[in-house]
Predict the 3D structure of the following.
Amino acid sequence: MRKLILFLVTCCLYVGLSAQTMVDWQSESFLNYAVNPALLTEVSDLNISAQHARKWRGLRSSPVSYNFSAVMPFQNDRMGLGLMINANDIGPLQNNSFALHYAYAFPIGLSDGDKLSLGLSARMTFLRFDQSEFIAGDLNDQLIDGGMERTTAPPNANVGFHYISGKADYMQPVQLFVGGSFARFIPFADRFNTLVYHRSYQWYGMAGLDIYLFEKTHLEASFLLSDLQRDFFHKAFRTTLSHETLGWVSLQYNDRRDFMSQLGLNIKVGPYSDDVVQLVGSYTMSFSTVSSQLGNGLSLGVNYVHRMQRQ
């Protein structure tokens, strides 16, 4: 029985290793440029953020992630540059990644105020498997003996687009947006000790509506798709009610039967500044048979937003 349990845990860890090197839609909408770099142009201000998340809190070695990101728009409001540093721990498995993102937007004239954005990103991931944390005092166990200690995921390149028909306001209260991206691992020579994937590409899709309700208040509804690997095709529906001054509330449900609720609060830095600090908290409940027994997930974040002064 002990060998069977160790075998199942080992399989789960190696599946987790492959999944960790891929990125899915983020719980914070302003971080979704991680999967579609074209979304950078939707962040109009300088944004510096940090997040901490823990999944399956009922499990002792539950996945834990730390994330730091920065978005730096340009003065002409058509270009955006972003970076993201991420660290993940799943028991003995550690994952550290670094990514750079760039996007450019331009009007195409299909509607008043429409915008098409094109984006490009590159990401590098480094992994470490610490056997001493997996089976203490038994490093020669046949199930993990000779396992990977340090390795590198192949670099990942991502190209994407995002189209929005205009800015929702009193005169045009409903606007459409649609986007997609395609990512691919670029294999190294084996001397770099890189992972090998059965399928080297991933794709993502997004479509939804931005609805103006009343002054400074919007409702956004979006449908999210991600196809990461074989048997990893996912769908999610997200709604966000936001107020430009106060903050936002988001709800999301996906086909893995996970329900996420999120609250974001805007705190003004000072009476003579338009800058704000955003406090973000997310709570995820799982209704699937297995995940519900492992516990729920919690994510906390803080963002600093510097309002850009443009001519």
Q: What stands out?
A: The two ends are 69 Å apart (CA to CA). Residues 197 and 294 are 28 Å apart (CA to CA). The chain has a mean pLDDT of 81. The longest strand covers residues 115-129.
